[in-house]
Amino acid sequence: MKRTYQPKNKQRKREHGFRARMRTRAGRNIIKARRRKGRKILSA
């Protein structure tokens, strides 16, 4: 049986990347929360 996770970098960036996050208000809130928490990596 094929595994469920078939990694694709373009798809990953499109769905979870920084630019995708900044597109919506909720996404910007996620980035803000991660900055507040002091995350080294903010998004994919």
UniProtKB/TrEMBL annotation:
Residues 1-20 are annotated as: Disordered. One of its GO terms (biological process) is translation. Signal peptide: none annotated. The keyword Ribosomal protein applies. One of its GO terms (molecular function) is structural constituent of ribosome. InterPro entries: Ribosomal_bL34, Ribosomal_bL34_CS. It holds the Pfam family Ribosomal_L34. Keywords: Ribonucleoprotein, Ribosomal protein. PROSITE patterns: RIBOSOMAL_L34. GO terms for cellular component: ribonucleoprotein complex; ribosome. Belongs to the bacterial ribosomal protein bL34 family. This is Large ribosomal subunit protein bL34. It comes from Anaerosphaera multitolerans. The gene is rpmH.
